[in-house]
Specification:
By secondary structure, this protein is of the alpha/beta class. The protein has helices spanning 33-43, 83-86, 105-114; strands at 7-9, 14-24, 29-31, 57-61, 64-70, 78-82, 96-103.
Length: 143
C-alpha cells in the first residue's frame, strides 16, 4: 500500500491492520482524518481525474462490516466505534489493540451495493444473504 504501514495485503479482498479500538459517542465509525485521507487515496482512488478523498472506508472487525469516516479529533492509529457496533464485539475493556480488515476498492464497492446497510452511519442495518463472488472472504457478510 505504500503510504501507511498500518495495513498490509491480506487477501484478494482485504488489507489487514492493527488499530486501537475505542468507543465514540457519535453514530458512525471514525478514524483520524489525515490517516483516513491517506488510506483512501492509496486504496480507493483510481487515478482517473479528481477524486474525493472523503469516501468512507469499509472495514471489518470480527464479523461486522461498517463504513469509516475521517475526524481530526480521533487519535492516530485508532478506530472509534459507536456503542451500537462495539457492544456486538468481544471487546470488553477498550481501548484495545485489534486486528481490523480494510476492504479493497472493488470489494468495498461490492459490499456497499450488495449490503446497503453499510451506507448507514452505525452499520447496524444489513441485508440477509450473500453473493457467491464474495463467499471466500465474506461468508455471512454484514451479519
Amino acid at each position: 500500500m505504500g503510504t501507511s504501514v498500518m495495513f498490509e495485503a491480506f487477501s484478494r479482498n482485504y488489507y489487514l491492520g492493527r488499530l486501537y479500538v475505542t468507543p465514540t459517542d457519535g453514530d458512525r465509525a471514525l478514524m483520524h482524518s489525515d490517516q483516513h485521507e491517506r488510506i483512501n487515496e492509496a486504496v480507493y482512488a483510481t487515478g482517473d481525474g479528481v477524486e474525493p478523498l472523503d469516501t468512507p472506508l469499509v472495514m471489518k472487525l470480527e464479523t461486522q462490516h461498517f463504513p469509516v469516516h475521517g475526524d481530526a479529533a480521533v487519535p492516530t492509529d485508532t478506530l472509534a466505534l459507536p456503542e451500537s457496533v462495539l457492544t456486538d464485539t468481544e471487546i470488553r475493556n477498550p481501548p484495545s489493540l485489534r486486528e481490523v480488515l480494510l476492504a479493497r476498492r472493488e470489494c468495498a464497492t461490492q459490499l456497499l451495493s450488495f449490503f446497503p446497510g453499510l451506507r448507514q452511519a452505525n452499520g447496524s442495518q444489513h441485508r440477509s444473504g450473500t453473493d457467491s463472488s464474495l463467499e471466500d472472504d465474506f461468508p455471512g457478510a454484514g451479519t
